[in-house]
Amino acid sequence: MNQAYVMPDSRVYLLIEVNRNLWEIWDGFRLSVAKEVQVSRVGVMTPERVEIKLSDRTNFKRVVLSASTVVLEPNSFHGWDKPIVTHNLDIFAHMHYAVCTVLAEQLNFTLNLTLSSDYGWNYGNGTYSGLIGKLQREEIDFTAAGALMRSDRMDIGDLTVGTFIARTVAIYKQPPLSSVNNIFTLPFVPNVWIALLIVMSVFAVTLVFLIWISNWLHGVEMKLSFALDTVTLVFAAICQQGISVAATHYSIPARIATFTLFLCAVFLFTSYAACIVVLLQSASKTINTIVDLANKPITFSVQDTKHNYIYFNETVDENIKKIYFEKMKPQGAKAFTSPEIGVERVRNEFHSYLGEITLAYDIIAKTWQEHEKCSLSETEVYKIPLLTLYVVKKSGYKDVFKQKMIQQQEIGLKYRTTKKLMPQKQKCSANSGVIRFNSVSMKEIYPALIFLGYGICASWLLFIFEYIYKTQVDK
Q1: Eight-state DSSP code of residue 20
Q2: What are the backbone dihedrals phi and psi of residue 27, each rounded to the nearest 5 degrees, phi first?
Q3: Is there a contact between 438 and 179 (Cβ–Cβ < 8 Å)?
Q4: Closest CA to 437 of 275, 284, 285, 277
């Protein structure tokens, strides 16, 4: 039995007959490959009954287990017990180190930790680099850094449980509402148009009636031009303009109606102007999916990490391919960049940056102002698998590691580590006390200029028509 490969996950029993119809049950397993099998008596058996007590497989008796973790940015690494000053991808190494140290206390083993410079990817010939390569060669017993759950790694090691989520999403600022919509027409829903038409019609009919009564009482003939001038007066009031209608001077009721018309126009115009000011400060919601990212005129860059290169090469999604070939490839080396540069481009340009969201949150928290966070959106371009700790294939540690790691999650240690080390998403603080108004550019007033241009063209056409008509009538 001393030559058998019986690890903590194994269940091997030896029955020794000590008396007639009485057997002792012995259990044995290795704490590691280098250790001898530990044998202990766990029960007895007779033809009538079996008494057995499972041996404790959760006390490794300070046996040394080798593990390796990954430090991608050694210049920013100051030790596992030092606070993280600058957040980078090594934050997940720190989080998994916390898991592994607790795991060593739970199972009472000594952790022999080494460093790797790469998580490990397939060379194409069945061998792996970095951390996964060490696991494949059985230079370590398990990985102390979380590696992605990928199907090509399942033949190399056994998976334990999902630990943390490395969310890689595209972040971008929604374009201003004024850049995608005509904000001068947005306040008007169909019901508002109907109500406005009714109000104008009521005032026009009322004024025409009052002027007609006034002229009839004074013996003045009512001309068609008076009615047309009254309609023009109503339009002028709505547009905050004035007009001279001589007939209104003969009637106090007509003057009161005119005053009411202009007072109503003031309220309407004030409400409309307030809506325009709000809309000028508002962000749109035009980009929500990966389809929008592929089709909208927004530039795109990606964090310069190995797994992003891998996933863009492996993807079969047509939208991701479109983003890569039409938005990224023309940029050359700028397509894959650092989080600092990518987030800064999002801040100052109509740009989307695909990167590890925790790093982006940390940069945004340190450099962005409160009002800039309100237009920030994010979209998941592709699904990143969970991170997990790998153990050597058939090493016998998988089940016992899984049990203890699940226990860490149940009692809140995993949640505590996440809250302590991982930057949280920045919230838009509407009540931060900072009031800021964006400057209005030609882009915002462009629809109004277009409307003005159409009005000028229509006026010239009517002028030319009247001139031609007048000259023809005179002849």
Answers
A1: T
A2: -120, 145
A3: no
A4: 277
Beta bridge partners of 73: none
Q: Report how far residue 115's alpha carbon sits from residue 68's, in angstroms, rounded to the nearest whole number.
A: 5
Q: Count Cα atoms within 13 angstroms, Cβ side, for 309.
A: 7
Tell me the residue type at 302: V
Q: What is the pLDDT of residue 295?
A: 87
Q: pLDDT under 50 in the chain at which residues?
A: 246-248, 432-435
How many Å apart are CA 69 and CA 131, to the nearest integer? 7
Place of tokens 């210049």: 75
The answer to whether 373 and 426 are in contact (CB under 8 A) is yes
Contacts by 330-339 with C-beta closer than 8 Å and gap 24+? Answer: 331/299, 331/301, 334/301, 335/300, 335/301, 335/302, 336/301, 336/302, 336/303, 336/304, 336/308, 336/309, 337/301, 337/302, 337/303, 337/304, 338/303, 338/304, 339/303, 339/363
Query: Among 144, 77, 94, which Cα is nearest to 422's?
Result: 94
- Count of CA atoms in the C-beta half-sphere (13 A) of 289: 3
Q: Residues 277-323: pLDDT tens digits?
A: 777 767 677 788 888 888 888 889 998 888 788 888 888 889 888 98
- With beta carbons less than 8 A apart as the criterion, state whether 58 and 106 touch: yes
- What span, in angstroms and rounded, lies between the C-alpha atoms of 250 and 256? 12
The pLDDT tens digits for 13-39 are 888 888 888 888 888 887 877 777 878
Contacts of 173 (CB under 8 A, 6+ apart): 283, 346, 347, 350, 372, 375, 376, 377
Length of the chain measured in residues: 475
DSSP SS3 for 120:
coil
Task: Please tell me the distance from the alpha carbon of residue 379 to that of residue 288, in angstroms, as a whole number.
Answer: 7
Residue 102: predicted pLDDT: 93
pLDDT at 214: 75
Nearest to 142 by CA among 163, 122, 167, 127: 163
Q: Which of 411, 354, 364, 414 is nearest to 387 (CA)?
A: 414
Q: What is the pLDDT of residue 124?
A: 78
